[in-house]
Amino acid sequence: MDQWIERVLEQFGAVGVAALMLLENVFPPIPSEVVMPWAGYAATQGFFSFPAAVLAGSIGSFAGAFGWYWLARKVGKTRLASWVDRYGAWLTLSRGDLDAVERWFDRWGTVAVFVCRLIPGLRTFISVPAGFSKMPMGPFCIFTLLGTVLWTAMLAGIGAWLGRNHEDLAGPLGWISTSVIIAMFVWWCIRLVRQTRQRTQQNVH
Fold first, then answer.
1. Is residue 50 in a domain?
2. To bridge 41 with a disulfide, which of 23, 103, 156, 159 should be the other Cys (CB 3.0-4.6 Å)?
3. Where in this chain does the record put each VTT domain (predicted)?
């Protein structure tokens, strides 16, 4: 998949970065921890500028986070939780995940929106309790954008630093990316099987 990501970035440039980061918010096995370092590396190879990589990644990621916020705000907790019980396994999202991020939000409020944007596994779904609680859109956008830009810039910076300090980074970065993607995919499959089994058992009882 890392080769596919590399081709997307080479073919579509910054637009490809934004699209992949948007997709990351919907399908976690495509993680930002892989996309943005590749984007930073691609910037050192002249495919686009480093600011363009950070801007595009931030736009795509913010759009995904805002989509979850808007959905939770419009649909409400009861209906969304019911949908998660049925189909959330495909997104590696469970009722327990919703409860966990909601506890974070209840404890830390708007600060959690910023902090959780820097924590893998929580960064996407922290938007959900913010939407449930009808957090004002202005503060949500500001805190989400700040956390998103910081996260994407940091990951892109790692890729750019490696690209400037190593003559041939594509090989090592490819192995690292492949390992991360395989681990994420295996984790996704395990959660999918586990949640599907739990749902089947609940239906039987």
1. yes
2. 159
3. 30-160
Domain assignment of residue 122, yes or no: yes
Structure tokens at 165: 């300090």
Return the residue matching tokens 């959780």. 116
* 13 Rama class: left (phi>0) / alpha (psi -120 to 50) / beta: left
Residue 172: inside a domain = no
Q: Give the angle subtended at the CA of 98 by the CAs of 122 and 36, to the nearest 5°.
A: 25
Domain assignment of residue 130, given as a range:
2-167+179-198
Query: Would you write out the chain's pLDDT as a tens digit for each of its 205 residues?
Result: 556 777 888 888 899 999 999 988 776 556 777 888 889 988 988 889 999 999 999 999 999 999 989 988 888 777 777 766 665 655 566 666 677 777 777 777 788 889 888 877 677 778 888 888 888 999 999 999 999 999 999 999 988 887 777 655 555 555 555 665 566 566 556 666 666 666 566 555 5
Please check whether residue 123 is in contact with residue 151, taking contact to mean a CB–CB distance below 8 angstroms. Answer: yes
Residue 93 DSSP code: -
Number of domains in the chain: 1
Q: Please give the single-letter amino acid code of residue 111.
A: V
Tokens representing residue 52 in the block = 């363009």
Burial of residue 4, with CB atoms counted within 10 A of its CB: 0-12 exposed, 13-18 middle, 19 or more buried: exposed
